[in-house]
Structures are given as C-alpha cells and as structure tokens.
UniProtKB/TrEMBL annotation:
Function statement: Catalyzes the attachment of tryptophan to tRNA(Trp).
Motif ('HIGH' region): 9-17
Motif 'KMSKS' region location, chain numbering: 190-194
Known partners and oligomeric status: Homodimer.
Protein name: Tryptophan--tRNA ligase
Gene from which the chain derives: trpS
GO MF assignments: ATP binding; tryptophan-tRNA ligase activity
Length: 323
C-alpha cells in the first residue's frame, strides 16, 4: 500500500504542517510505501522570487529529514524533478469541469484573504490530482483543509476512467487525524504559510519566542478569569499531557494567570518537543551533500514510476508522440 503527500515550499514550514502532515508521514513510514515530495511547481502559484523558492525548498527538505522522515524507508523528492506531474495535469484538466474548481474552498479562502488569483492557483487541484494519481497512491495523509482537494482528485479520476472506459487510475483516500486536523495560527485562523500567522519550530529561539508572544488574545486584565479555550490552550494541547492542559485551563479560569504566562509555558513546550529535531537539523545543514544524494535517489525512483504511468495515460488517450 502506498502513501503519498506533499508540502509546498511557499514559505518556511510551521507547526500546522508538522502536526497536520509531516508527523503523519513519519508515523506511517513503517506501514506504507511512502512517497513524500516538495510541491515546488505548486509553490509557483504564489509567484515567489527565485531565491526565496530555492531557499524554502532546501529548508523544507531539511525540515522533513530533521523531523524524522527516513530516506531508507520513504522516497523523498522534488516535484520539479518529475515533470510528468505537469504533463498529466494537462491531460487531466480536460476532464475537469470548471465548476468543480470554482467550488474550491482553499481557492476561495485565499482570494477572500486578498491573494490575487492566477490560473495556476485556480487549477492547483488538477496538478494535485496528477501528483496523487500518477503513483497509484492508496492514502494521502493531509490536514483537513485538503479534504476537498482529495474529493476533487477522486472526481477527476472517475471522470477519466469513465470517459476512456478503463480503470487507469486508482481512487485514493485522504488520511486526516481529526485531533490535529486544523492547527490555528497566531491570529486564530488556520495556520498557513501564506497568511503570515505561523509558528516555525526551527527558528532561532529569540524569533520563535517572538512568534509565540504575538499570539492574539483579548485584553482581559491579569487578575480576572479568562476563557480557558483560547488560542494559547489550543496550541498548548498539541504538546502537553492531559493533566498539563487541564492545569493551564484551570489557571485561566481562576484568574491571576495572564496570557503572557500561558505563552511562556507554550514556548517552553515547543522548545522541549522540538529540541532533538532542532539539533538534527543543524547537523544536516552541515551535510548538504548527503541531502543532495537523497533527493537524487528519490527523483530517480519517483520518475521511473511516474513515467510508466504517463506512458499508459498517453496510450489510453491516443497521443502518438514517441516516449
Ligand atoms: P499555503 O498557505 O502556501 O497554502 P500551507 O501552510 O497551507 O501553505 P500547504 O503546503 O498548503 O501549507 O500544506 C501542506 C500540508 O500541511 C497539507 O497536508 C495541509 O493539509 C497541512 N496543513 C497546512 N496547514 C495546516 C494547519 N494549520 N493545520 C493542520 N494541517 C495543516
Ligand atoms: Mg495550503
């Protein structure tokens, strides 16, 4: 059984990406044949400058490895090392109704946040369908925001299979951990690279602390009771034990416990949780040759599978180009 997923290197990765996606990749790596990539073609939809894209791509691969993705168990690669994804995306776009894309929540959310949509952002789910279907993936571990994109992937696969009257594509299932499905950002909205509301676990301590301290709260005075289900406790719950979470909630309810106190406890937990990964990342940063080798090996393996699938698709649709 195959598990596949990707993250866009559209900014530095954050604890939402970790809990929604990377942690699942790692937890599944003994059970599934894993394919995990960096969706750099997808990242182009936000038109990053080329230096940032390069930097974010290498930074994200270090994040994957530092968090415990094991290249001996899973295939790690860059999407742009497998151009067949874009070829398949073009072919799939022809069985994708515009109406399906117009209903995209993620697309609509981004537009409502003032992001100017280009065609790439609009057709993002078609490329994502290609990413998934090209490897005959069985499951796709993701955060909840991607649920609809998986439904679209199945719709597109069904349309293709029906039109060509052949079971070319397997229908994949999303794998979402309900408890970690949507990690809130410092403003309470979904934590997203593109919403600039992130907490990045690999920042130097001072900057990390600054991010945690900027979590948005109301202005209830220190001595007064506060809503125990605030943004700080929600984030703290990702790291703390049941007892610790209850203790923090009680503190907020009782008063004389300020948001600053809660943020400091959260900051300490984040540092403690990620300490071994932060150390490993530093080691990897000094060993980029090793990282390059992993990407090269991953690209070869992924491309071998993807090109076979695309040959089958080309034949199925009647393209006569020689490849
Ligand atoms: P962008 O703002 O550029 O879309 P993003 O932060 O949403 O970036 P993606 O690359 O789109 O990150 O998503 C990568 C993976 O991380 C997906 O599986 C997605 O579901 C998951 N993910 C992203 N944000 C969260 C979050 N706040 N909580 C849980 N999972 C998340
Ligand atoms: Mg996203």
């Amino acid at each position: 059984m195959r598990s596949l997923s990707g993250i866009q290197p559209s900014g530095i990765l954050h604890i939402g990406n970790y809990f929604g996606a990377i942690k699942q990749f790692i937890d599944l790596q003994d059970e599934y044949e894993g394919f995990y990539f960096l969706a750099d073609f997808h990242a182009l939809t936000s038109l990053p400058d080329s230096e940032s894209l390069k930097h974010n791509t290498m930074s994200a691969i270090l994040d994957y490895l530092a968090c415990g993705l094991d290249p001996e168990k899973s295939t790690l690669f860059l999407q742009s090392d497998v151009p067949e994804h874009t070829e398949l995306s073009w072919i799939l776009s022809n069985v994708t109704p515009i109406g399906l894309l117009e209903r995209g929540h993620s697309y609509k959310d981004k537009v409502s946040k003032g992001i100017k949509p280009n065609t790439g952002l609009f057709t993002y789910p078609v490329l994502m369908a290609a990413d998934i279907l090209i490897y005959d993936s069985d499951i796709v571990p993701v955060g909840k925001d991607q649920k609809q994109h998986l439904e679209m992937t199945r719709d597109i696969a069904i349309k293709f299979n029906e039109h060509y009257n052949k079971e070319v594509f397997k229908l994949p299932e999303e794998k979402i951990l309900e408890t970690l499905a949507v990690v809130p950002g410092i403003d309470g909205e979904k934590m997203s690279k593109s919403y600039k509301n992130i907490i990045n676990m690999f920042l130097p301590e001072k900057e990390l602390k600054k991010q945690v301290m900027s979590i948005v709260t109301d202005s209830t005075p220190l001595e007064e009771p506060k809503n125990p289900d605030n943004n700080i406790t929600k984030l703290y719950s990702l790291f703390a034990s049941k007892e610790e979470i209850q203790a923090m909630k009680d503190n907020f309810t009782n008063g004389n416990y300020g948001y600053g106190h809660g943020k400091t406890e959260l900051y300490n937990k984040i540092l403690e949780y990620f300490a071994p990964y932060r150390k490993k990342r530093e080691e990897l940063e000094n060993n980029m040759d090793y990282v390059e080798k992993i990407l090269k090996k991953g690209a070869e393996k992924a491309r071998d599978i993807a090109s076979k699938k695309v040959s089958e698709v080309r034949k199925t649709v009647g393209l006569m180009g020689r490849n």
